[in-house]
Specification:
The protein is mainly α and 141 residues long. The chain is built from five helices and two strands.
């Protein structure tokens, strides 16, 4: 959770949010684990699974389009989006949402979505199974 400077004194850092580079490294590690041990041997993830668009999405989209020999107009027609929107994705000025990233993945046969398993922080007042509230993250006076 990101808060302003005046509000940060009301809580404490339970867990630091990893950078995009760290997320990508972890996702690659998870892929290797799945390849080595198989999907059935891995235990179920604990906590929340976050789906994130990889940080170098613009370079990957543009590279895949060029490799297929398509111009922006042709790819935009295939994806049923405006050419100007595709241009924004390729220049990195606008990131695709998860749904749009899935469409890119399917059409261009690339990987844009990274999974990040976020462990649920446990505090003394939180009971297992209950949904987390803001109070679970704040220090009570």
């Amino acid at each position: 959770m990101t808060v302003c400077d005046s509000c940060k004194g009301y809580g404490e850092i339970i867990k630091r949010v990893p950078s995009a580079k760290e997320l990508e490294t972890r996702a690659k590690g998870k892929e290797k684990e799945r390849e080595e041990f198989g999907k059935n041997r891995l235990s179920a993830p604990k906590g929340e699974v976050l789906l994130l668009v990889r940080p170098d999405y613009a370079k990957v989209i543009k590279g895949a389009r060029e490799q297929l020999g398509l111009n922006q107009e042709d790819l935009a027609k295939r994806l049923r989006i405006r050419e100007s929107q595709l241009h924004k994705y390729e220049t990195g000025s606008h990131a695709p949402d998860i749904e749009t990233a899935r469409i890119f993945e399917k059409e261009l046969k690339i990987r844009l979505i990274l999974e990040y398993n976020e462990e649920v922080p446990r505090t003394g007042s939180h009971r297992t199974g209950d949904p987390l509230t803001i109070a679970d993250f704040m220090k009570k006076r």
